[in-house]
Write a structure and sequence with these properties.
Layout lengths: L16 H7 L12 E9 L6 H14 L11 E5 L4 E6 L3 E8 L17 H5 L4 E12 L5 H6 L3 H6 L1 E5 L4 E5 L8 E7 L4 H22 L1 H28 L3 H46 L2 E2 L6 H8 L1 H70 L1
Parallel strand pairs: 5-8
Antiparallel strand pairs: 1-4, 1-5, 2-3, 3-4, 6-7, 6-9, 7-8
Length: about 375
């Protein structure tokens, strides 16, 4: 039998085959070699916001540097403008812009890579700024870690979060504070490869982004907590009234108020379910990115994992507790409404039975009266 080769072109392909296969290769980290300045920004947007507005904004930046803009058929783009590199990514709730450039003589460290980006273009960036981070990548030969740490004042040392990452191949220092609107990371590279350095930077900015997006649920949780406190008090009062009501009118009044309370709580559930679910998902991503850093503790400093467990985890746990409490209250209102509705239905059935019994008695009386009349009529006619 002769060997046959299958021609895939003869088969009908799924329309998303190549797109799904390329998804696992999307958004690769940019290889980096020290020294580098990286400025990162994340801006929130609604799903209804026009994606084309962001692309047009990027096209204007490329035109300003006379660089041809490639066609964008995905949700990410890397654009080399010569003076700096810009990486754009669009996610469900936010878009990110990463600016990368090599430090020049006379550069101010605090200004990062953003110094090279036109200020007018930045001012017209679509969306609302949520995260702004400067990352400085230096070699251990240029910036010895021991020298950096020895220069920290006691106050700075207490606020500093520092650890070795990538199994000791680099040091990371930050305080997660906003200075002039920016948070800052210092990465001291000892033996990182360019791809490792790029992945380390990407993980750090993703930790910062997912930390902030997870915390978007915390103000919502506080607001819902006030609603739940009031609603639980109203439910307890209505249950007390339900135990002492004896007339159908009172029961229907309590049922109407229970229905109104149920609608209010369900509206809150519908409004906050996505936010609380997103907070849990973002927190899971934060923990996953921290695990990928492979941290090693430095004596006298808090690791990123310890900082997040101490500062971020309680807020996320509060959101999860409020979400469970809200679902529990919704279920209790539904059960109590069903119980009261059953009592009302039973009372209505009893009233209907009494009405039917009265109708039967009237029918029997009418029948007897008719028989009497007919009997009298027969007697009268016979007479």
């Amino acid at each position: 039998m002769s060997e046959q080769h299958l021609d895939l072109a003869a088969l009908s392909e799924h329309p998303l085959r190549y797109k799904l296969n390329n998804e696992v290769h999307a958004r690769p980290p940019v290889p980096l070699e020290a020294p580098q300045f990286i400025s990162y920004m994340a801006v929130t947007h609604n799903e209804n916001d026009d994606r084309n507005a962001e692309i047009a904004h990027l096209r204007a930046l490329a035109a300003a540097y006379a660089v041809p803009m490639p066609e964008i058929d995905s949700e990410h783009l890397i654009l080399d403008l010569g003076a700096f590199l810009v990486k754009w990514e669009r996610h469900t709730e936010f878009s990110t812009y990463t600016f990368i450039r090599i430090p020049q003589p006379g550069d101010v460290t605090d200004e990062g890579a953003i110094r090279a980006v036109p200020a007018g273009w930045l001012a017209e960036m679509p969306g609302h700024l949520l995260v702004a981070t400067h990352v400085e990548l230096r070699s251990a030969a240029e910036v010895p870690p021991t020298v950096v740490m020895s220069r920290l004042s006691p106050t700075e040392a207490r606020q500093m979060v520092a650890s070795q990452v990538a199994d000791g191949a680099a040091w990371v220092l930050t305080d997660f504070l906003l200075t002039d609107g920016w948070s800052r990371f210092l990465i001291i590279d000892s033996t990182l490869t360019p791809r490792q350095a790029g992945r380390t930077v990407q993980r750090l900015v993703e930790i910062e982004t997912y930390r902030m997006t997870a915390l978007l649920a915390f103000p919502v949780a506080k607001e819902v907590g006030h609603l739940l406190g009031r609603a639980e008090g109203e439910l307890a009062d209505l249950m007390d009234r339900m135990t002492v009501t004896h007339t159908p009118t009172d029961e229907r009044e309590v049922l109407a108020k229970l229905t109104q309370l149920a609608a209010e709580v369900e509206r809150s559930v519908a409004r906050t379910t996505f936010r609380f679910g997103a907070a849990a998902a973002y927190h899971s991503l934060v923990r996953h990115r921290i695990a990928e850093l492979r941290e090693i503790r430095l004596q006298g400093f808090v690791t990123i994992q310890e900082f997040m467990e101490r500062r971020l985890a309680p807020a996320i746990n509060t959101c999860a507790a409020i979400a469970r409490r809200q679902e529990d209250l919704s279920g209790r209102i539904a059960r109590n409404s069903q119980l009261l509705r059953t009592r009302v239905d039973i009372e209505l059935q009893r009233q209907n039975q009494e009405l039917l019994a009265q109708m039967n008695r009237r029918a029997r009386l009418q029948l007897r009266l008719q028989q009497t009349v007919e009997g009298l009529s027969v007697v009268a006619i016979t007479y």
